[in-house]
Amino acid sequence: MIIGTAKESYPADEALLTTAPQRVWMTIFVIALIAAPFVLSNYWLYLACLAMINVISATGLNVLTGYTGQVSLGQAAFMAVGAYTVAYLERSLGTPFLLNILAGGVIAAAIGLVVGLPSLRVKGLYLAIATIAASFILHFVFVNWTAVTNGNSGATLAPATVFGIELATYDRLYWLIMPFAVLLVWGAANLFRTRIGRAFIAIRDRDISAEVLGIPLLRYKLMSFAIASFYAGIAGGLWAYLFRVVTPESFPFLTSIFLLAAIIVGGMGTILGGILGAVFMTLTPELLRVVVDLASVFVPDAATLLSPVRTIVFGALIVGFLILEPRGLTEIVDRIRRFFRLWPFRT
Amino acid sequence: MSEWLFFLEVTLAGLGSGALLALTALAYVLIYKATRVVNLAVGEMLMLGAYLFFAFAAGWGLSAWIAIPLAIIGGGLVGGIVERGLIRPMLGESAISVFMVTVGLGSVIVGLVELVWGTDPRALPAFIDTSPLFLGEAYVSRKIAVAFVTAAIVIGLFLILFRFWRGGVALRATATDQAAAYSCGINVPGVYSAAWVIGGATAAGAGLLLGAIGGISPVMGVFGLSALVVVIVGGLDSVLGALIGGLALGMIQSWTSTYVGGEYTNVVTFGIMIFALMLRPYGLFGTHEIERL
Asked: Where are the annotated coiled coils located (chain A) (predicted)?
């Protein structure tokens, strides 16, 4: 409880944003989100779209790993399921894009339920390894079920259309992706104020105690898997509309590690962490590109160094955050907030 | 008759790669037994070992018989540095966090190798005679036979060391009960370091055998995932499980790729793993962990 925020009514206590500065910052943030397509260049809009897709997927993984404590290394495979569902529906049935994206989420959630089944018997690291296995098996399906996925050559799809307008440019796609990101993150933030969300947290903190308290473990673990996969499926569906081609290599195993790294870097078990981590991890490779461009003046073949340097920085970020700042970027933000709480009276 | 002979040859080739799997699995088991860390970077440490050998033998032009021990010592050194620098600060953190540290470490090693040696696959300088070998009538590649014999000797050596060597007993004691081992005067941090050094050296050794058979590239670390399947099926803390699981998986992979098709290898491998996990969550030979509240 923060000093000076005495709550006098239940609605005040239940509010998502409790303090005036939080509301001010949120207003600024919403204005920035709406203003972005009018100010940003095409390239930055593309990055914004990609970052928001990663935010959706990372938030889903955060529900599963950060809040329920079930480590999954299969999130990318569920994104692929969503992307392929959208591609298939768009190509062969031509259904409206909103329906396609929702179907992507639902089918990913259904497969997530199946993949979550081992959580009945195994947990912790063994579960993480079981999800690795699941993602490799799904990859095999994507390569070989050519009737639906078109195999290794990949599935291309037409852009989404709304009232005859093609959502083909990044400033239009932004209006498709941004509402999804906002809605889903908002939904996740509210989830942890309900019985289901509280049960997830109880399972994370001690699963046996949670079961003793009357939480059916299997049902809630599967529910968590389904929610995480639903988020991944939606993110994958949006990804399919952003790039308009889906191949089995679109969502490699590395993407799963990327998403897990995003919530570690951002801060596990906080909504803000999923957002910060996904945005940070999406933008870091671009930052490195700028650095390498600058270095190319001094180093002859700097461009060839870009890919290895990205790989090294990616790994070093995971290791560094886990050792030096285990609670992630959220903790850094909190530290800054604590500093300014009584500022300038006490620093 | 010739069909049967072909089957025998396929099986022997499978046993050879299975021995390599078992050797790699041994690196997982060693590190897990002593420190309770599943080190996903074993595959990358294996790759680094192969590249070290490449650097010593092809880059510096050393004879293979000097380069091999150097590469293995290098692998051990890497293991030791990783333990002191990255794993020791994570002492007491949750298993998942430490696991993720090793995932990040794997990424760093891949990046470093690509930075130094580039991404192109390369062939290791030949240090094994290539003339074919016949076991009765069945043909065996000499490289695979050498890999099998080496792996068998090393695993046998480990089994003996665990049983009779003081350090091996200390390692088993630490694995069973850390606090009790401490109070018996066992240098537990020393055991931790030793396990990582030996694990790193084993991985490097497996790496140069694997590189001698199939060439080296920065992506050869995925071999570590196959070995991880072996460890999960066999039990994370069982040397015997690693041995039997490795040989079995090697043969199964070999049969699958010959009789069903190469693209099915991964599915069968991971399918077996999920099946084994559902049947016996702690592996075929692993000890069942009892959870305390």
From this structure: none
- Please say whether the dihedral angle defined by the alpha carbons of residues A54, A59, A60 and A61, taken in this order, is positive or negative: positive
Determine if the peptide bond prior to A344 is cis (ω within 30°).
Answer: yes
* Domain locations in chain B as residue ranges: 2-219
Copy the structure tokens of residue A172.
């239009």
CB contact under 8 A, A322 and B101: yes
Q: CA-to-CA distance for A224 and A69, rounded, in angstroms?
A: 10
Residue A291 has what pLDDT?
86
Window 121-140 of B: residues touching A by CB (8 A cutoff) are none
Comparing CA positions, the residue from A282, A265, A318, A263 lying closest to residue A68 is: A263
- Residue A60, token pair as written in the block: 């889903």
Q: What is the pLDDT of residues A49-95, one digit of tens each?
A: 999 999 999 999 999 999 998 989 999 999 999 999 999 998 888 88
Return the closest-CA partner of residue A227 out of A18, A67, A44. Answer: A67
The Cα–Cα gap between A337 and A120 comes to 41
pLDDT of residue A1: 54
Phi, psi of B290 (to 5 degrees): -100, 125
A chain contacts of residue B270, beta-carbon cutoff 8 Å: 132-134, 136-137
- SS3 of A213, please? coil
Task: Taking the CA atoms of B118, B120, B121 and B124 in sequence, report the sign of the dihedral they define.
Answer: negative
The ipTM (two decimal places) reads 0.86
Report the pLDDT value the prediction gives residue A2, as an integer from 0 to 100: 64
C-alpha of A142 from chain center: 22
| Domains within chain A, CATH numbers bracketed | 39-341 (1.10.3470)
**Residue B117: closest CA among chain A residues belongs to which residue?**
A308
Can you tell me the distance from the alpha carbon of B84 to that of B119, in angstroms, rounded to the nearest whole number? 29
Q: At B128, phi and psi to the nearest 5?
A: -115, 135
Kindly list the residues of chain A whose beta carbon comes within 8 Å of any beta carbon in chain B. Answer: 71, 118, 121-122, 124-126, 128-130, 132-134, 136-137, 139-140, 143-144, 206, 208-209, 257, 260-261, 264, 305, 307-319, 322-323, 326
Nearest to B32 by CA among B282, B292, B290, B291: B282
- Residue B20, Cβ density class (10 Å: 0-12 exposed, 13-18 middle, ≥19 buried): buried
Q: Bridge partners of A245?
A: A156
Contact status, residue A64 vs residue A231, Cβ threshold 8 Å:
no
**A49 in Cβ contact with A170 (< 8 Å):** yes
User: Could you tell me how far CA A232 lies from the centroid of its own chain?
Assistant: 7
Kindly report, residue by residue over B253-293, the tens digit of the pLDDT. 999 988 888 788 888 989 988 888 888 877 778 777 766 66
Tell me: pLDDT of B1 over 60. no
**Which of B100, B114, B263 is opposite residue A264, by nearest beta carbon?**
B100
Q: Could you tell me if B18 and B247 are in contact, meaning their C-beta atoms sit under 8 angstroms apart?
A: yes
Helix (H, G, I), strand (E, B) or coil at B119: coil
d(Cα B159, Cα B153) in Å, to the nearest integer? 10
Interface-testing mutation among B90, B103, B223, with chain A (most A C-beta atoms within 10 A): B103
Distance CA B1, CA B16 (A): 23
Beta bridge partners of A167: A160
